From TrEMBL:
Keywords assigned by UniProt, alphabetized: Cell membrane, Coiled coil, Ion transport, Membrane, Sodium, Sodium transport, Symport, Transmembrane, Transmembrane helix, Transport
Taxonomic superkingdom: Bacteria
PROSITE patterns per UniProt: NA_SOLUT_SYMP_2, NA_SOLUT_SYMP_3
Primary localisation category: membrane
Residue stretches in coiled coil: 373-400
NCBIfam families found in the cross-reference section: Na_symport_lg
Stated family: Belongs to the sodium:solute symporter (SSF) (TC 2.A.21) family.
InterPro entries hit by this protein: Na/Glc_symporter_sf (IPR038377), Na/solute_symporter (IPR001734), Na/solute_symporter_CS (IPR018212), Na/solute_symporter_VC_2705 (IPR019899), Sodium:Solute_Symporter (IPR050277)
Membrane disposition: Multi-pass membrane protein
Transmembrane segments: 6-25, 53-72, 78-98, 119-136, 156-173, 185-203, 252-274, 286-307, 455-483, 503-521, 527-551, 563-584, 596-621
Protein name: Cation acetate symporter
Species this protein is from: Rhodobacter calidifons
Length: 651
């Protein structure tokens, strides 16, 4: 059976399961649509939370970011520390108290705690901005996965994914999504760990990838550790050592903190804890979610490291048991003729992997091209272009001299630039010929790079889609709930019937899916980066107001509203300065490079500062305005008592 047919069968079976579950668990009331009737057991809710959490960013992008980080893999471990640490904050500081409050949505809590429709509407605005930013990454993941494994365009993949989400999310609401996410978790965790086990066995002899990461490198008889081998290969090729320390610990701290408090403030994660029967179950769910998430997150560093090593040794076969330059680079003829390397041209067709034999020697040489070499090659290319376009012979004479001079200058740079202990001229290298390796392909291509069986490749396709679709559904439900429950019922039409609200929720879901699909057609970055921006916004807006709402009796309406707006505006503007206004390409004010960041703080880390701004503004404004009324103070006191939570009551 060919790979395409196998992919189609495996993905088709999983989609049929998801839609079948949605039909079986369809929502018949607003309570079931928003909170699954608050009858989900903690273990099952923990598994659904794991699927909701492990998005396209976790499944597809995270290992790629760790693997291909220009600054080394250690710096990118912030993703692991921040995202898992956030669940500890969520379990200890938010989940039980919000479940005790007994409502359906985050804006509803904010509106009641701060006794203001305005506060509720500002929370709706923040929630929609966060969720829409986040969902872009999920739709990108759907498109990338479909474009490769089902051999369709990225746009077509987005449309198919949107149709599947529509089928089970609009029909089932939170009830259908919850049980679908349980199935999706099982699919994605199997799809992630099986290839990792195979690759760990081949590279290190260890069955567990977590041990393989710190184990010995098998192809060299265990004489060197796997990480030491990886460091050797990547540094020979001119890249930063994989285990290199960060050069900006302050920014790494801020980034990790932004991911932690952003995790604790993500609306689509928080609403999962409204689905359990009791307050104690909310904390228990968070614990189980950590267990299920850890099954993937402890494997991700190994997947990233091993994928990077396999990629490097593919293009430099000599690196398998010696130095990278001990044998010639991979040849174009080998790529075209060896069935085990067919994945290279397959991924090249998606434009997520690109290469070019620039010097015409029949080899594809992959290395980190130094800036001086890039500039010398560019000057030579410009001189050659001018010569080719010259019309008069007199002009050609001068231009030929310019080409000769540019060639000599380039050769001088190659003779002076060292790689692996030799000059580039000695190694016969002129330019990096692997011009693009997209972060998002590392997990998806990993089984093919390691020459694993076709069914493993198909399983990874199903897992990538499960990860993207599960989180997309959770985000879309959060958006739908905010619009139908908090905006329509909470502000526009408080007397709407339950049947009318349920219809409004489904229509809102449909519009949210359409918007997410449209945004996914032109995403502003690769999946995990876009998601990281959503974390920054959540850190700067939702997390502080929830913390103050639970643990402070003095913060009032004016403080909460101004704090949220200050955090949202500050963080958004800083992000837009570097990534373009509303992510429109070419509209950025500053280049997104470390030397241009204020105090070395990247746009991905600014959420921590935004949270501090939120806290300060909220407290200052609250101190100079009227204190909250007594019934709100009593409400805060009651939230802190763990016992006595009743059923959710719609407002």
């Amino acid at each position: 059976m060919d790979q395409f047919t196998l992919n189609l069968i495996v993905v088709g079976i999983t989609f049929a399961i998801y839609i079948g579950i949605a039909i079986w668990a369809r929502a018949g009331s607003t309570s079931e649509f928003y909170a699954a009737g608050q009858g989900v057991p903690p273990v099952m809710n923990g598994m659904a939370t794991g699927a909701d959490w492990m998005s396209a960013a976790s499944f597809i992008s995270m290992a790629g970011i760790i693997a291909l980080a220009p600054v080394g893999g250690y710096t990118q471990s912030a993703f692991l520390m921040g995202w898992t640490g956030g669940y500890v904050l969520l379990a200890m500081l938010l989940a039980p108290y919000l479940r005790k409050f007994g409502k359906f949505t985050v804006p509803e809590f904010i509106g009641d705690r701060f006794y203001s429709k305005t506060a509720r509407l500002v929370a709706v605005l923040c929630l929609i901005v966060i969720s829409v930013t986040y969902v872009i990454g999920q739709m990108r993941g759907v498109g990338v996965t479909f474009s490769r494994f089902l051999e369709v365009t990225t746009d077509t993949g987005l449309y198919i994914g949107a149709a599947v989400v529509f089928a089970y999310a609009v029909l089932g609401g939170m009830k259908g999504i919850t049980y679908t996410q349980v199935a999706q978790y099982i699919v994605l965790i199997i799809a992630y760990t099986i290839p990792a086990i195979f690759i760990s066995l081949s590279l290190t002899g260890n069955f567990l990838p977590q041990l393989g990461l710190i184990g010995s490198y098998a192809p060299q008889g265990g004489e060197i550790s796997m990480l030491a081998k990886l460091d050797q290969v990547v540094t020979e090729l001119g890249f930063t050592a994989y285990t290199a320390d960060t050069t900006n610990m302050f920014n790494m701290f801020l980034f990790t903190m932004a991911l932690m408090i952003g995790t604790a403030g993500l609306p689509h994660v928080i609403i999962r804890f409204f689905t359990v029967p009791k307050v104690a179950d909310a904390r228990s769910s968070a614990g189980w979610a950590l267990v299920f998430i850890a099954l993937l997150y402890t494997v991700a560093p190994a997947v990233g490291a091993m994928a990077r090593l396999n990629l490097s040794t593919t293009f430099w076969p000599g690196a398998v048991d010696g130095s990278a330059f001990s044998k010639p680079a991979l040849s174009v003829a080998e790529i075209e003729s060896n069935p085990k390397l067919s994945w290279i041209n397959t991924w090249k067709a998606t434009k997520l992997l690109e290469f070019e034999d620039k010097n015409g020697d029949g080899l594809i040489q992959y290395f980190n091209e130094p800036k001086a070499v890039t500039e010398a090659n560019k000057a030579l290319a410009e001189a050659q272009k001018a010569l080719a376009e010259a019309a008069a012979d007199a002009d050609k004479t001068a231009l030929e001299a310019a080409v000769t001079a540019a060639t000599e200058a380039r050769d001088k740079v190659l003779a002076e630039t060292m790689l692996g202990g030799k000059s580039m001229a000695e190694l016969g290298l002129t330019a990096n010929e692997v011009t693009k390796v997209d972060n998002d392909i590392m997990v998806l291509a990993n089984p093919e790079i390691a020459a694993l069986p076709g069914w493993v490749v198909a399983l990874v396709a199903a897992g990538g889609l499960a990860a993207a679709l599960s989180t997309a559904a959770g985000l879309l439900l959060a958006i739908s709930s905010a619009v139908s429950h908090d905006l329509i019922k909470g502000a526009i039409n408080p007397n709407i019937s339950e049947k009318g609200e349920l219809l409004a929720a489904r229509i809102s879901m449909a519009f949210a899916i359409a918007l997410a699909t449209w945004l996914g057609l032109n995403p502003p970055g690769f999946a995990a980066q876009v998601v990281a921006l959503a974390f920054g916004l959540a850190a700067a807006t939702i997390f502080p107001v929830l913390m103050m709402g639970i643990f402070s009796k003095r913060v009032n309406t004016a403080g909460a509203v101004t704090g949220m707006l200050a955090g949202l505006v500050f963080t958004s503007v800083y992000i837009f300065l570097y990534l373009g206004w509303f992510f429109i390409p070419g509209t950025n004010v500053y280049p997104n490079t470390p030397d241009q960041h204020f105090f070395g703080i990247s746009p991905l880390s600014i959420g921590t500062i935004g949270a501090v701004v939120n806290f300060i503004v909220a407290y200052v404004v609250s101190m100079v305005t009227k204190a909250p009324p007594q019934h709100v103070v009593d409400l805060v006191e009651s939230i802190r008592v763990p016992k006595g939570a009743g059923q959710a009551v719609a407002h």
